[in-house]
Structure formats: structure tokens, C-alpha cells
Amino acid sequence: MTIHNFEGTNSVLNTFISEIRDQKIQKDPMRFRRNIERVGEVLGYELSKSLSYKSKSVTTPLGVKEIQIQDQEVVICSVLRAGLPLHQGLLNYFDHAENAFISAFRKHTNNSPKFEVIVKYFAAPSLENKVLILTDPMLATGKTLENVYKVLKTHGTPRSIHIVSLIGSKSGVENIDTIFPKSANLWIAAIDDILDKNGYIIPGIGDAGDLAFGQKL
Ligand code: URA
To answer: Ligand 1 centre from 169 Cα, in Å?
Structure first.
């Protein structure tokens, strides 16, 4: 897997990430969601440079211009619910993308910090020979992506796989590197060193789903 980590590149992306991390600014859910969406837009733009293009003639009121247009079919797949703002950001730039959704949650037994990832709902088009963009805002252990990938494989073999993430832990990134094909790409805004015993990225941002959509019982 090729890792494209933009943490060390000075751009507005880091401004969005700093607001997403900031415990005061992240309390505004609308700003929090919009910042994640903006990260999706920036990472979508970056990954678009690696896709294939074909020439198209565009007629303007004054003449004709040849322009290179992205020519592969794209499917954006997100895990409910935290993945939704990142999904929307990508969809803002890939107008004709098809969409896939999966619900996955962490099941803890007897209040233990250990958990298994349960996948319940899955709705996806065929992935055969398409560009698969898989979002996971917080790439913590990598277990969610591992389970999601198992389910996705039942819908065909994509021509390429791009994982888009806000923040990952070092161990989570190492883990998915062993699961996805070597040709896969990870587009990520930052990688933090620590994963705590509850599976949270430190310093990270806290719980992305709760910050975006409110606490659940
Ligand atoms: N999911 C989150 O929302 N935050 C983390 O730190 C890890 C997983």
C-alpha cells in the first residue's frame, strides 16, 4: 500500500484538521462536519491526480478546447455513521460516483475494552473493475476496514482501491497495510503515535461520530 500522509505538507488541510482536533472549536457540530467534508474534498482532489484521464472536446461560445477528463467509474464506500461527512466531501468532487454504505459497530462484551467489529447493513453496486474509494475517518485499529473489505469483496474486484482517512494511528496504518493489496493507496491527513486500550487515537480528536451527530445510548 502506498501511504500519502499530508501532515507534513503546509496547506489549508492542516487548518481544517487543527479545528477538527481543537476541543473548543469541535463543539460546534456544523463546523465539525463541514471541516471533515472539506478534508474529503482536499483528499479527493489529491487522489484524483492518480486516476486515468481521456481527452474530451468542449465547445465554448468562441471555439473548441481539448480537455483531459477523468474516465474511470468511481464507487465511494463509507461506514455509517461517522464516515458520512467525509463521504459527502468526496461526492462533491466525484459528481458521477456510485455509492456504497456499510454499518459497522464495535461490540464490547462485559464492559471489556476489547471489542469485535460487527457489520450489519450493506448496500453497494458492483465494484468490478471500478475505482473504489473507501472512507474511514478514524483509522484506529484497522479492524473496521478489515471487516468491511471482506464484505466488499463479494461485490467484485475493483481496478484500484483508495482509502481516505482523516487521522490514523501508526498501528492501525501498519495493520491495514497487511490486509489491502500492494497497489492500494491510503490518503490521510495525519497519523498519530498512540492507540489507547479503548481503541481511541491519542491525541486524535475524540469520538468522530458523536462529535458530528451527537451521543448515542
Ligand atoms: N473512532 C473515533 O471516533 N475516534 C477514535 O479515536 C478512534 C475511533
So the answer is: 10
pTM: 0.94
- Which sign, positive or negative, has the C-alpha torsion 114, 120, 122, 128? positive
**Ligand 1 centroid from CA 139, angstroms:** 7
Closest CA to 70 of 143, 133, 144: 133
Residue 47 vs residues 43, 71, 200: alpha-carbon distances, Å: 6, 14, 27
Q: Ligand 1: which of 201, 202, 210, 216 to mutate, most ligand atoms within 8 Å of CB? A: 201
Q: Kindly give the distance from the C-alpha atom of residue 17 to the centroid of ligand 1, in angstroms, as a whole number.
A: 14
Per the structure block, which three cell numbers stand in for 175? 495493520
- pLDDT digit string (tens) for the chain, length 217 residues: 999 999 999 999 999 999 999 999 999 999 999 999 999 999 999 999 999 999 999 999 999 999 999 999 999 999 988 999 999 999 999 999 999 999 987 788 877 777 788 888 999 999 999 999 999 999 999 999 999 999 999 999 999 999 999 999 999 999 999 999 999 999 999 999 999 999 999 999 999 999 999 998 8
Which residues form ligand 1's pocket by a CB distance below 6 Å? Answer: 82, 138, 140, 199-201, 204, 207-209
